[in-house]
Structures are given as structure tokens and as C-alpha cells.
């Protein structure tokens, strides 16, 4: 869970470290092109895709290896979401069913 939090929200802290560069480093960056403008141009989803590729090292893989890893990740996420929704439904429905059974049992006694 901590890894997911870091992956989703810590990129702002990583990229804000650029403000601590010295003037010479900033001048060199301006000559080469300011990298901050690249990240400003990217939207949130593109930045997350970039972090995903860099974090898992997918940029080094061939195109077919990249697709295999993505397919495995999609299957894993589907599995987690599907079973999570089933268990959440059971968790919330079970007390209602038990409450109805208890009410039916008390009505039968009266």
C-alpha cells in the first residue's frame, strides 16, 4: 500500500527537487531546454505512465515484453478488483441477511 502511495503521489516531491539546483546547473538546463517544461506539458496520466515505465524498468524491454508485462498487470488488477468487489458485497450484505433472519425468527415466535 505504501508503494502505491509513493507511486501515485510522491512524484511531485521528486520533481520539486529541481528547485535546489545551483544557478550554474539551472543555466546549463536552460541551454539544453528546461526539463520542468516537459513535466508541465504532461498531464497527470502521462506522468503516471512515465513513472510506471521508469519504476518497473519497462523502458528497457522490447515491445513484446512490454505488452506481456502490461497484460499480466491488467489481469492482476482485474483479479484484485473483482474479488475485492465480491468480498465487499458479502461484507455489506451479510449483516442485512442476518438481521432479516433474526426479524423473521422473532415474528414466528409471537
From TrEMBL:
<feature type="transmembrane region" description="Helical">
    <location>
        <begin position="67"/>
        <end position="85"/>
    </location>
</feature>
<keyword id="KW-0256">Endoplasmic reticulum</keyword>
<protein>
    <submittedName>
        <fullName>Uncharacterized protein</fullName>
    </submittedName>
</protein>
<keyword id="KW-0472">Membrane</keyword>
<dbReference type="InterPro" id="IPR024512">
    <property type="entry name" value="Ser_palmitoyltrfase_ssu-like"/>
</dbReference>
<keyword id="KW-1133">Transmembrane helix</keyword>
<keyword id="KW-0812">Transmembrane</keyword>
<dbReference type="GO" id="GO:0005789">
    <property type="term" value="C:endoplasmic reticulum membrane"/>
</dbReference>
<dbReference type="Pfam" id="PF11779">
    <property type="entry name" value="SPT_ssu-like"/>
</dbReference>
Amino acid at each position: 500500500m505504501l508503494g502505491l502511495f509513493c507511486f501515485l503521489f510522491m512524484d511531485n516531491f521528486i520533481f520539486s527537487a529541481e528547485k535546489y539546483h545551483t544557478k550554474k546547473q539551472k543555466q546549463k538546463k536552460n541551454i539544453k531546454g528546461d526539463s520542468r517544461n516537459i513535466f508541465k506539458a504532461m498531464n497527470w496520466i502521462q506522468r503516471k505512465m512515465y513513472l510506471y515505465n521508469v519504476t518497473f524498468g519497462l523502458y528497457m524491454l522490447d515491445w513484446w515484453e512490454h505488452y506481456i508485462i502490461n497484460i499480466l498487470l491488467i489481469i492482476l488488477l482485474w483479479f484484485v478488483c473483482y474479488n475485492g468487489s465480491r468480498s465487499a458485497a458479502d461484507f455489506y450484505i451479510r449483516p442485512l441477511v442476518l438481521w432479516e433472519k433474526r426479524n423473521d425468527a422473532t415474528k414466528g415466535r409471537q
